[in-house]
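Researcher: I'm preparing a figure for a lab meeting and need a structural model of a single chain. I don't have an experimental structure, so a prediction will have to do for now. The sequence is pasted below. Please return the structure as tokens so I can convert it later.
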Amino acid sequence: MIDAQYRTLPDAAHTFDAGFSFGGIAAFYMGWGFDETFSRVGVQSVGTAGTFPYFSRIVDDPKPSTRFYFDSAGAGEPVVFAQALSYRDDLLSREQGPFVLERDLRYFAGELEGHVRTAAGSRLPEMLSFLYPASEETPECYDGVDNDGDGSIDYVPGARDNDPDCTSALDPSEEE
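Model: Understood. Here is the structure written out token by token.
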């Protein structure tokens, strides 16, 4: 119906889904189970999914071709925050094909942020820049390499020890 009414690019490469809280769980479900439809998924401020059995598929199912942005907020909810970190670790250590940070998974830990839409909204640029980068070439400030030899690696959202020459993950160079 939408494709008939509007000019769209309906293939998976141009289709993404995102959600906040339980909507993030739904987005995860759609991206994991329907990667022929959704190539990119944003999962924001999710952590209470332990009661939702779908996340068990992280360990057991074959890896989808979907690119995931995943974030969590931790202010006032340390158990929920720890659970979200556990999901990230499960994605990175899968025997059925692990995800690779900054290639097919970006994780943002908002330890001091609350589980509120305004905090999630402030992270939208980070999500969109990963899911739909201006270029598929990885910027030096997010490539996992100490390109300028100063002993610091990259800009990691929420980290305290970022490379001082990187003010954003999108900075193309670690040089001043």
